Amino acid sequence: MFVSDCERDGLNYGVICIKLQQPFDNLDKAQESLISYLDYLKASSKITLSAGYGKGHRLNNNENTRGIIDYWQDSDKNNWKIKGWTNGKYIGVLYGYSPKELPESKLNIYLDSLRFPDF
């Protein structure tokens, strides 16, 4: 597991990457695992509001990936946007949060920047 975050111009960026010990051959099952992990993150990040998971995303139009998007607000009134990705071998979650309105176009470039290793 790799976790990192940083702050720039009042916007906090973060990434979590997990190499799955038991890879999934079935991407629907991998997506279920990703959702379970996002549920865990919501609880541990004290999320009080959630727009609900948006499914059907593909990383760089790659049909061998699945992506989930959501908007959150935590107990400190920070606005979050998260994207979780999986290819069955890895789970990656990228997020940004700020007490201010999120700069969508700037943040989207980051949230879609994950690259899985080619095996």
Describe the structure.
The chain is of the alpha+beta class and 119 residues long. The protein has a domain at 2-6 and 18-90. It is 22% helix and 42% strand. It is built from two helices and seven strands. The chain has helices at 27-44, 104-111, and strands at residues 2-8, 11-19, 47-50, 54-57, 66-74, 79-86, 90-98. Strands 1, 2, 3, 4, 5, 6 and 7 form a seven-stranded antiparallel sheet that branches. Strand 4 (54-57) and strand 5 form a beta hairpin. It is globular, with a radius of gyration of 14 Å. The mean pLDDT is 95.
Task: Describe the structure concisely for a colleague.
With 119 residues, the protein is α+β, with helices and mostly antiparallel strands. Helices cover 22% and strands 42% of the residues. Strand 6 and strand 7 (90-98) form a beta hairpin.
Low-confidence stretches: none
Oligomer: single chain
How big is the Rg?
Answer: 14 Å
Mean pLDDT: 95
In whole angstroms, the N-to-C terminal distance is 18 Å
Succession of helices and strands: EEHEEEEEH
**Which structural class do the helices and strands define?**
alpha+beta
Helical stretch tally: 2
- Secondary structure: number of strands: 7
Portion of residues in helices? 10-25%
Shape: globular
| Beta-strand proportion | 35-45%
Which sheet architecture does the biggest sheet show?
A: 7 strands, antiparallel
